[in-house]
């Protein structure tokens, strides 16, 4: 009898949970999004949010670092040292690492000794104003592999001071462009990753916001699979490949396409092995995020699925487990996925009767 594929549960959408449940408002004046709370004196709300997901059943807690960037910190107003009411314009690059170390500590505190921490790293487009991770339309200076690689390297270096014992995974999330996936792959070597993060399993996940089953830049699933998973001499192969920030009803067909693409590559002699699968769809009921207004709007003509979110997602996971290809599965939620979503998801997975919550290797 085949060994059951282990499943871990990831947390949900931090930014939207902070807005919906913790009375936090984000705008163009808070370009760091959730990370803004690290500099505004509101760490307690980040901790509460992490803890809520942990209590809901998440095995993996993501850090509040998705939208951090050097430019984002430079554009952020912060309290002057020793004051509450006075603000200063911008945070210098040299100051950033201490905030990021705190983000990791907060996530690790919530995860506890039995949980794990994923370092959340969004794409370049997530740091643009307005953000463009759903369209993949980047400024002219960041339209090619070299520039995107330089940007990601500079951001990774900001995490040089984090406690290496408090980060278990590095998650490059919502990557909407093939050239950016290639740029990230190019960084996966000991020379490019800070000492504090070396050896950590990496996953790369992408969004599929449109109805054509392609990345926002038009790249196909097959191109994504090759870019993420093909063995390259001298570079680490990602531990996992994933889909996030995507409607839950799209997952079943997308996962099957991922599986077909991997099987085809292996059959054709590509140097590729089965990775772990990471799935964290939006928890929306048809709403689409408007990056210009920073609001969620119901898309015209959308028909809500009859089955609950957690039922659809759990069935995708169970079907993938039954097919038996993946090394392990990580499943959670993205935007608008609350602690209650995660609680119901865990309960539904447990109802299948053989869910393993042991750590995935």
From TrEMBL:
Q: Please report the stretch or stretches of sequence annotated as the Hcy-binding domain.
A: 1-349
Record keyword Hydrolase present: no
Q: Which cofactor does it need?
A: Zn(2+)
Q: Which InterPro entries does the record associate with it? A: HCY_dom, HCY_dom_sf, Hcy_S-methyltransferase
MF-aspect GO terms: metal ion binding; S-adenosylmethionine-homocysteine S-methyltransferase activity
* GO biological process terms on file: methionine biosynthetic process; methylation; S-methylmethionine cycle
Amino-acid positions noted as binding Zn(2+) in the UniProt annotation, renumbered to this chain: 245, 334-335
* Secretion signal span: none
Keywords for this protein = Metal-binding, Methyltransferase, Transferase, Zinc
Keyword flag Repressor: no
Q: Name one Pfam family in it.
A: S-methyl_trans
| Name this protein carries in UniProt | Homocysteine S-methyltransferase
Instruction: Tell me the organism's taxonomic lineage.
Output: Eukaryota, Fungi, Dikarya, Ascomycota, Pezizomycotina
